Amino acid sequence: MTPLLIVITAFLSSCCIHKNAPRTSNDKSFLGKGAKDSSQTIKDSLLLSNIHDVDRILLYTIASPQQPDSLLKDSIGHYKVYKAYGKISPANIAIFNFLMKEDGLLRSDYPPVKQMFYPYCALRCHKGKETYILLYSLGTEELRIQKQGHKEETYQILKMRTMLHWLNQVLPNDEYIKNLSTWKQ
Known about the structure:
The structure is a single chain. By secondary structure, this protein is α+β, with helices and mostly antiparallel strands. The protein is 33% helix and 24% strand. The chain has an eight-stranded antiparallel sheet with strand order 2-3-1-5-6-7-8-4. Helix 4 (90-101) runs antiparallel to helix 5. The longest helix is centred in the N-terminal third of the chain and has 18 residues, at 3-20. It starts with a helix and ends with a helix. The relative contact order is 0.15.
């Protein structure tokens, strides 16, 4: 490489690094990029606050778009169900309830994802007479909560490894979740 080319490459690299570097400040009112107080947003969320302490959970896997319609059964949350597993165990429901109360698991304000939301699995959660649908898009690391008559809410899963560990417990023979769990180690 010529010295001029090296200088130009170094200059362009430093510009990119400077532009993408996180901003810091000693000002207490300053919130850096992505550091907005999302915990307040999450706690004020109607749907998310209602899925704590659910009584019963039914588990489904969602059909991929390539699967023929003849293999598909029911639908949940506007997506075709590939397989219905039925109720999950009370022990796994207790773990789910614990996870949903954990601070820092989900974030409601995050940069747009460049991949389309397409769920891999879904939960139908029952709490008293209320029913909530949770759709897990593992590729985009997002969770969408739906309830009839309410606006759906989508969250980024910040602790994907923890979520995958739980999903691996409820779907122990699922190769896709096993591979993702191994990859996220």
